[in-house]
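Fill in residues.
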């Protein structure tokens, strides 16, 4: 891959703003497990190798199993490995990441409302939006795995 800009070097205030979002996300009610599943699944959809590498390592450090990480992309067929809450979060992640298709469906939103509070739904959406922004930065700048 050809060398591209490093946004953190040329526009450090932009990265600073992203890290403010990360600071907010570090303090929300959503579990680390759910956050990492969101980050892994969105990064898979967006083909962001940098973020997949980072977040699978973070998930493993946090106690996640390899099997669940491997199955995250096929969670609909591997439901016995994921709780109702995790399945809901994965569905939300897919629908919001692929927002151009149908957006967050009524069925998925209603499922989320049955297992999460309004605050938690808002927090989940913010995790999804933030990882999608990171994915787009990493993919468009060809950020390399270290």
């Amino acid at each position: 891959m050809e060398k591209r800009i490093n946004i953190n070097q040329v526009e450090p205030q932009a990265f600073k703003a992203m890290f403010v979002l990360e600071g907010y996300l570090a303090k929300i009610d959503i579990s680390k497990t759910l956050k990492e599943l969101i980050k892994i699944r969105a990064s898979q959809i967006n083909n962001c190798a940098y973020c997949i590498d980072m977040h699978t390592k973070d998930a493993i450090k946090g106690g996640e199993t390899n099997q669940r990480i491997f199955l995250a992309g096929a969670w609909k067929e591997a439901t016995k490995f994921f709780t109702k809450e995790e399945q809901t979060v994965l569905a939300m992640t897919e629908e919001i990441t692929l927002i151009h298709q149908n957006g967050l469906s009524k069925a998925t939103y209603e499922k989320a409302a049955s297992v999460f509070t309004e605050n938690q739904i808002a927090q989940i959406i913010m995790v999804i939006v933030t990882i999608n922004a990171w994915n787009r930065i990493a993919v468009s700048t060809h950020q390399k795995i270290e």
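The helical segments are 7-10, 12-26, 32-45, 49-61, 66-71, 84-97, 106-115, 118-140.
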